[in-house]
Amino acid sequence: MTESNETVPAQTIHKGLTKAKIAKIIFFICVGSVLMGVSIEEFLVPNKILDGGITGISIILSHLTGVNLGLFIFILNIPFFYIGYKQIGKTFALSTLLGITVLSVSTTLLHDVPVFTKDPLLATVFGGVTLGAGVGIVIRYGGSLDGTEILAIIANKRLPFSVGEIVMFFNVFIFISAGFVFGWNRAMYSVLAYFIAYKTIDLVMQGLDESKSAWIISENHQLIGEAILARLGRGVTYLNGEGAYTGDNKKVIFCVITRLEEAKLKSIVEELDSNAFLAVANITEVRGGRFKKKSIH
């Protein structure tokens, strides 16, 4: 076994995270967990509005028994630490353990703090945004604040449903239960808060400066490529393609832009070749290469 290690390039061997990166991950997971705690104790729970997942179950059980909410959140998530460790990895499990611990402590410490609002609509909107921001930050830095998705990943291997469908089914059950416990108007507020949180998570994960990929096929590929470089300041790559129907060789332009540049890109393509094929798709993350914008005149 020792001979095989000697032939492996040093840069391919797994390297641990630096202390600075570990500190950054811990900091942001703590920030995200505290934000979720603020959402739960300052907006949602005082107005009898639920989150989905294990947190939603914890809120219902805490309301029915009078036992501390943070205790339920921590205890009910314990099985998922082990599952996460087995299915995803040690780093994920430790990050999740940190997030859940900070969340449980936050809800306990914030329980007696005066609530921000008693208006259920304001609590729904601001609670949903704060909740989504907190969860999004934790996910972005490699952790989780709820075991539902881990459970869904396991169930997905045995059931003919996607992870998203399993999570949605689980949450529908929770919100129906909330209707019986807190009343149906509060259950509907809970669904609205969940939707707002879901959209906020996407925003936090993707960032405000969302990137897009563009694929352009045109006879005027050279002109279009030069125009994108000069007028948008974005680099382009020319790819070789072949039409399946005609067998003709084609040049394909590939470039990455921000969502704010999409309209200008379309106008450039329309101006130089109104018959060009253009496809634009969302990209969740861009790294490396020369994505940095060049200066334009």
Describe the protein's architecture and organization:
The protein is of the alpha+beta class. 61% of the residues lie in helices and 10% in strands. The protein is built from eleven helices and four strands. It has helices at 2-7, 19-44, 53-65, 69-87, 90-110, 120-140, 148-156, 163-182, 184-206, 221-232, 262-272, and strands at residues 211-217, 237-242, 249-258, 277-283. The protein has a four-stranded antiparallel beta sheet, with helices on one face. Strand 2 and strand 3 form a beta hairpin. It is elongated, with a radius of gyration of 24 Å. The protein starts with a helix and ends in a 14-residue tail after the last strand. Residues 1-14 have low confidence and may be disordered.
Query: Average pLDDT value?
Result: 82
Strand coverage percent? 5-15%
Distance between the termini: 59 Å
Query: What overall geometry do the principal axes of the alpha carbons give?
Result: elongated
Largest sheet: 4 strands, antiparallel
The Rg value, from CA coordinates, equals 24 Å
* Beta-strand segment tally: 4
Count of helical segments?
A: 11
Uncertain stretches of 5 or more adjacent residues: 1-14
Structural class: alpha+beta
Strand order of the largest sheet: 2-3-1-4
Task: Please provide the ordered H/E string of secondary-structure elements.
Answer: HHHHHHHHHEHEEHE
- Summarize the amount of helix as a percent range: 55-70%
Protein name: YitT family protein
InterPro entries: DUF2179 (IPR019264), N-reg_PII/ATP_PRibTrfase_C (IPR015867), UPF0750_membrane (IPR051461), YitT (IPR003740)
Domain DUF2179: 234-288
Keywords: Cell membrane, Membrane, Transmembrane, Transmembrane helix
